Amino acid sequence: MQRSITVAACLALIVILFSIVTSRSITAQNEPGPCTPRTGYELVNYGREWNAWSNGSRSIYLEGFVDGQSHTYLLLQNDLPTERREPLRLQTFTFYESGALRDVMTSLYSDPANTYIAYDSMVYIARDKLGGKDIEVALRNARQKDCGYAETR
Questions:
Q1: pLDDT for 30 beyond 50
Q2: Contact criterion met (CB below 8 Å) for 28 and 147
Q3: Which of 13-17, 70-74, 109-113 is the least confident region?
Q4: What's the structural domain count of the chain?
Q5: Distance between CA atoms of residues 58 and 150, nearest Å
Q6: Ramachandran region, residue 24 (left: φ > 0; alpha: ψ -120 to 50; beta: rest)
Q7: Closest CA to 151 of 66, 18, 21, 27
Q8: Which residues, in sequence order, are CB contacts of 123 under 8 Å at separation 6+?
Q9: Which helix (H) or strand (E) holds 134?
């Protein structure tokens, strides 16, 4: 019982870390609908922000993202059941240099259909593209469910 609580707490920590890394509040995508403006919030245009950054800034973001997820995984791995360690590592590690991820993300964000996909989702889509996977389903899902919202001021 206590081990499952520890695993649940660790997984919650991972979710919090990814939210901090993206530097924006990403809300649940259940209501009122996919990527639609909400009262008191505006959609975050991640593509426009990404394209406004220099390649150096993009690389710094990606290096921080990778460092954060790697550090978190290493801290938690001994608290995970043995059978969950490798699947979680394969799911969360990016496995590619930040320059390669940066270039693929820049290419993906050049498509206006992808502009509202949150950075953390786009990192993994870029990783999968570099790995030769078909990313069309992931892109469709992200366009509907992985939008970011910021409070309007």
A1: no
A2: no
A3: 13-17
A4: 1
A5: 21
A6: beta
A7: 27
A8: 62, 65, 94, 101, 105
A9: none
For residue 41, the cross-strand partners are 151
Domain hosting 90: range is: 2-151
Adjacent-strand bridge partners of 149: 43
pLDDT at position 34:
67
Burial degree of 151 (CB within 10 A; 0-12, 13-18, 19+): exposed
Token representation of residue 111: 């498509």
Model pTM score: 0.74
Alpha-carbon gap, residue 14 to 17, rounded angstroms = 5
Beta strands in the chain (DSSP E): 41-43, 149-151
Output b/e per residue, 56-65; b: 16+ Cβ within 10 A: eebbebbeeb
37: tokens are: 């403006």
Mean pLDDT of 11-26: 42
Is it the case that residue 134 has pLDDT exceeding 80? yes
CA–CA distance, 123 with 59 (Å, rounded to integer): 12
Q: Which residues contact 148 (CB under 8 A, 6 or more apart)?
A: 22, 24, 25, 26, 27, 43, 44, 46, 116, 118
DSSP 8-state class, residue 21: H
